[in-house]
Amino acid sequence: MTWRNVRLVLTREVRDQFRDRRTMFMMLVLPLLLYPGIGVGIMQMTLIFSEQPRTVVVLGNQHLPAAQSPITASGAFDARLFEGYSDSVRNLVLIAETPPAESAAAAPVDLKRTALLENAREIVRLTAAIQALERRIEQAEALLPPDETDAIGGFDDDPPTPDETQLKQLRDELAAKFVAFDADLIIAFPEEFDRLIDEFLAEPRPHDAAAPHLSARPIVIYNSANERSQLAYNRVSKALTFWERELLATREANLSFPSTFIAPLFERRQSDGTSRNVTDVAQAEQHSANVWSRFFPTLLILMTLTGAFYPSIDLGAGEKERGTMETLLISPAARSEIVLGKFLTILLFSILTALVNIASMGGSLFLFTLAGEAAMSRMGMVALPSIGTLAMLGLTMVPLAGLFSALSLALATFARSTKEGQYYLTPMMLVVMGLTIVCMSPAVELTPFNSVIPVMGIGLLLKNLIQSGQSDVLLYVVPVLLSSLGYSLLALWWANEQFHKEEVLFREAERFELGLWFQHLFREKERLPSTGQALFCFVAIMLLQFLLAGAITNLLGAPGKDQGESTLYILLAHQLALIAAPTLFMGLLLISDFGRAFRIRMPSLRWWLMGAALPFLLIPLAVELQHSLQWFFPPAPESVRRTMEALTSGNSSVWALFTVVALAPAICEELAFRGFILTGFARHGRTRVAIVFSALLFGMMHMIPQQVFNAFLMGLVLGLLAIRSGSLFPCIVFHLVNNAIPVLASQLQPATVESGWMKGWIAIKDNQMRFTWLTLALCGISAAVALGWMLRTPNEVDPPTEIP
Amino acid sequence: MIEVAGLTKTFRDFKRGPIVALEDVSFVARPGEIFGLLGPNGAGKTTCLRMLSTVLRPTAGTARVAGYDVVAQPAQVRAHIGFMSGNTGVYDRMTATEMVAYFGRLYGLDEDVLQRRLDEIFTTLQMNDFREMLGSKMSTGMKQKVSIARTLIHDPPVLIFDEPTSGLDVLVARAVLDAIDLFRSQGKCVLFSTHIMREVERLCDRVAVIDCGRILAQGTLVELREQFAQPDVEELFYQLIAGNRARTGTEALER
Q1: Residue A202: what pLDDT?
Q2: Is B13 within 8 Å of chain A by CB?
Q3: Which of A740, A797, B17, B28 has the most CB atoms in a 10 Å sphere around its CB?
Q4: Is A24's Cβ below 8 Å from some Cβ in B?
């Protein structure tokens, strides 16, 4: 690798991109125009769609007391009721039954207003009828014996009473009326309400609570399913609550109670509208941080991706399309130098695009705030994150851009034309968008586990950095950056692989014909599965689990059966139908050398022994490793815990448990993962890569994070065992013993462990088998020796390969 | 010089299964000589030359170019050849000078050597008129000249041209052939593939006739005429290929 060549490729590609008008437009000009454009658009929209006032019909306003009326003479809520709230809250239009005196005289008869009031009265009447009916039904139910009342509350098979039928009719009618109604809310004040209030204010006797006269209270009717109506209700209820407090205060004064006599325990609003005991600690920059933290990571991630997207297509597929790929390949620059040069170019543009976008967005926001956009300034979006935060953002952006650049380059190299490149890159964009949206959710927090998920880790870190900038976030910086760096290196390695493949670089323009492809697949069977078929086998297993797992549970988990027993059947069916069946089906259908592909072969005795002995050495290490990593993984889902409980609590025999938990997975999963899939991956002779990838897939199949990790490690050992012994049998033995040990251990009585020979080696803590340091040390040393020997030992037979 | 022994290349094709694009091809081309690879379209010429330029790996057989093995020392091989084919295009967004200089730098030339070579080559190939023209604005002939200039910039001992005159008008084609003639006189080893008989008659010291991935005959033109008792080269070529296809049962020539 010569840096001179990398630099030459890099400078050429960068200059090339700067000369491409389309790229320049997408990356530099578009963002500069976009955000000011969006800003202007939003301003226009707010002008056009400024919030309409909510209409409130007030019936019986003539019955309000003259002295402390909530409604002023001009026919609006008194402004004092909304003190301390923003102006928009007062945005209500009141249509009063008895209009203010001066306008009533002047205005001609308004037909629309008359109709509205008439409808409102009708709705109030309906509501009253419904309430009366409801009371009658309640009273009827109260008379029934208690066990029958239960039935009414529960699933009631009795035919509805005539009253119930009528109630439903009335409710439907009311709902229909209100939908057709032209206002958002109705308040109806009862007759003689003013007299009632006067009494309430003046008389010392307690307000008659024993016989609540419903018609003597105001009725509010609104529709909470309608956003406009809900909004009107929020505003009106604010006003009425404040008014009620005022009345209470007057009563206190009239009856010379001490002012604290009926003071509310909770919020107490003062005359200036502020509250003494509710404190909002949010400061302007925190509001702004909150807005930024939602907005900014998403934008940053998507822009970084966009910035990688277009140049990568040009540098990969575009080079092929313009016929210059071969010119470059015959130059003395090594392929890895070319890949690195191109990768750095894409990385540069990815970061540049993100920066330009952010700068343009920040700049536009700043200008709009200067221009006095009141709503925006209140949101506090102008306040930029601090310099330290910005530096951290820059730091996190590099591995993120690296990941996107390498992935895009690999995909774009695979594509034959720029059009094809876009087809391949779009799914990646969708996946990234999905992950970003998940990050945005307030419920998703930065945890050790989340921090190592690609893209999400960075998204969450960015969110938290902007939100708090606290030191505990800094704990996550290292894992997030390291894992992201790892992913980018992996992606870069993949891109480099793509560049070394003849079939990728010189893909002829073959027409894809489904019929021909099927013919080829079934008639001219290949000896061994291809890498694509191996991957498809895994996808088929995952898809079947997704589609059929529920069906199997329904079929076998019929109620009434023993829980433990049906769980056993379900697990067995999973193994046979969802793992073994698709694998064997593909094997029979697609390949000719079944025996070699599935490694059906007698190995020498030492591999049998190795398969049987290794689990004993590895299980203590795995158990303790998992315990020490418990903080890292999210807790296992409830359903898994329940399955485990059902298995152990059931009264099924040890043999049944052994068959389902140990024997079936040992055979089915090994056929799939160390048979078909490993052979497919190792087909071109690259066994190490094949072992790692088959182990990764084996881990992924286990879904639950803890098990994924465990299964991945186990998959590595099993893969090595399969390659070295050239046989599936030692793997089946290993898997069998490995799964059987916990089953047998669950049969152990704590007393046996404490007293017998196991004392000092094994302990039982919280119903779980744990191991002492002595055990761990011995197992660790022997496992290291065994694995070391396996790594150094040559393969017993050459792994089945097909080198083209 | 170029020594090819038993070179074989198999591709996997989606529709047709494995295809032998080149089978057991052997020949030697010496310095100061123009070796012609003569064959119809799809005969395997390009595949053969791609293996010599190390962009494809041989399935079997060996090839040494300028003393380096194409599998074991690909970087050395690439540094010592100038390669041009229909698939080695010119960058659209680079001028002629930039393009040739870029490759010169990749070959590790010093800046002063590079400038001298640039001037020399641009004058020899009469390219000074469009030195600063972008690739996208050039005519086919201009592009071909830029490609030739690129193959010459590091003064390689071996030059490989894959159908260098295809798509060119008579004037430019003649200029290209003259240039190739000139390279021979400079003592370079030139491997030159074509399907045009007149070019072969005019330039080649020795030829190999290739079809369906196999060499049907090789030697000087005089030797070939005598061997097959056919004075007309075009007729000779046709008979060889028609005979081969009749024997192997591949599709007839007139398709």
Answers
A1: 75
A2: yes
A3: A740
A4: no
Q: Which residues in chain B are contacts of A326 at CB distance < 8 A?
A: 50, 55, 85, 87-89
- In whole angstroms, how far apart are CA A658 and each of A678, A728, A739, A744? 26, 20, 8, 8
Residue of A nearest to B54 (CA): A330
CA distances from A401 to A314, A346, A422, B176 (A): 17, 9, 18, 46
Where do we find the tokens 């009447």? A125
| Chain B touched by A8 (CB under 8 Å) | yes
Whether residue A330 and residue B55 make contact (CB cut-off 8 A), yes or no, is yes
Cβ contacts (< 8 Å) between A16 and chain B: which residues? 91, 93-94
Candidate from A332, A520, A524 with C-beta closest to B75:
A332
pLDDT reported for residue A151: 44
Name the closest residue on chain B to residue A12, using Cα atoms: B102
Most distant pair of Cα atoms in chain A: their distance: 111
Rounded to two decimals, what is the model's pTM?
Answer: 0.72
State how beta strands B158-162 and A768-771 pair. Answer: unpaired
Tell me which amino acid residue A324 is. T
Burial environment of residue A181 by CB neighbours within 10 A (0 to 12, 13 to 18, 19 or more): buried
> Are B106 and A20 in contact (CB < 8 Å)?
no
**Taking the CA atoms of chain A, what radius of gyration do you get in angstroms?**
37
C-alpha span between A157 and B245 (Å, rounded): 87
- More confident of the two residues A519 and A118: A118
Question: What pLDDT is attached to residue A674?
Answer: 93
Interface test with A, best of B93, B97, B153 (most A CBs within 10 A): B93
pLDDT band at B16 (very low <50, low <70, confident <90, very high): low
Q: Which of A334, A502, A804 sits opposite B75 (nearest CB)?
A: A334
Q: Token pair for residue B134?
A: 């972008």
Determine contact: B150 vs chain A, CB below 8 A.
yes
Torsion angle (degrees, nearest 10) of CA B126, B131, B134, B139: -10
Candidates A319, A321, A330, partner chain B, best to mutate (most B CBs within 10 A): A330
Residue showing tokens 């017993």: A796
B243 touches chain A (CB under 8 A): no
User: What is the amino acid identity at position B50?
Assistant: R
Q: What Rg value do the Cα atoms of chain B yield, rounded?
A: 19
Amino acid (1-letter code) at residue A482? L
CB atoms within 10 A of CB A292: 24
**Are A330 and B54 a contacting pair at CB < 8 A?**
yes
| Token code pair at residue A493 | 């390695």
Please indicate if any CB of chain B lies within 8 Å of the CB of A158: no
Distance CA A408, CA A309 (A): 6
CB contact under 8 A, A331 and B103: yes
- Could you tell me if B103 lies within 8 Å of chain A, comparing CB atoms? yes
User: How far is residue A349 CA from its own chain's centroid?
Assistant: 29
The CA distance from A698 to A681, in Å, is 13
Question: Would you call A504 an interface residue with chain B, using a CB distance cutoff of 8 Å?
Answer: no
Secondary structure string (H, E, C) spanning A459-505: HHHHHHHHHCCCHHHHHHHHHHHHHHHHHHHHHHHHHHHHHCCHHHH
Q: How far apart are the C-alpha atoms of B115 and B111, rounded to whole Å?
A: 6
| CA pair distance B219, B239, nearest whole angstrom | 16
Helix or strand (DSSP H, E) at B100: helix B96-106
Cα–Cα dist A790/A326, whole Å:
43
SS3 call for A127: helix
Closest chain B CA to residue A18: B93
**pLDDT tens-digit map of A719-770:** 999 999 999 999 999 999 998 888 777 777 666 666 767 777 777 776 677 7
Q: Do A20 and B15 touch (CB under 8 A)?
A: no
* Element counts in chain A: helices (H) and strands (E): 35, 6
In chain B, the largest separation of any two C-alpha atoms, in whole Å, equals 58
